[in-house]
Write a structure and sequence with these properties.
eight-stranded antiparallel β-barrel, 4 helices, two-stranded antiparallel sheet, alpha+beta
Length: 230
Amino acid sequence: MHSSASHVHRRGIVAAVAAATLCLALPARAEEAPRVRFKTTAGEFVVEVYPDKAPRTVENFLQYVRDKHYDGTIFHRVIDNFMVQGGGFDTRFAQKKTREPVVHEGREALAKGGPRNVVGTLAMARTNDPHSASAQFFINVKDNAFLDPILIPPGDPVPKFEYQGRVYENTPRANLMSAPQLFGYTVFGKVVSGMDVITKIKSTPTDAGGPFPSDVPKTPIVINSATLVK
């Protein structure tokens, strides 16, 4: 568990190198994917999640749904043209207690053909520690390729490749696999209905609120309930 608020970095992770951008397949068939309905003060939306791509992440998320953790929480970080984030704070900005964090599964999910950080996808928020995700999630409202995990090219040592203007050459694989800046964010689902509600949320006026200096909706957007519907 971590005490500070989970967050999503705007910069610091960019699109993978060409050799590592091969997995663009869509997730599992919709009929195999569990779905969760969120009822909020801005309207309803439904997400589906992909246990075949990120099993521990999905089970962690669904357990929070079953435990009613998200009921009464707010979207506390809303940035138009980036993402909307919630699931961690109640209406008084008290951070809700969470279980132990889950191991980062972003690379594994992407390698299995899981979705990237594109409009409408659902991902786990975290601190600078890649393995710190607990309950908070975010929904991308634009294509955020710089949030994608970096798929490390095969080989040990890893052959020469370039990332963020830096050239890596004959680098031990273990060094690259553990480098925090290469983890990105685990995408584990997507919005399948109610994207108009997400659009409404992302467009809401924001200001400072609670412990946050900016990006907090002036009119609180509350998750009244999150329910497993499939």
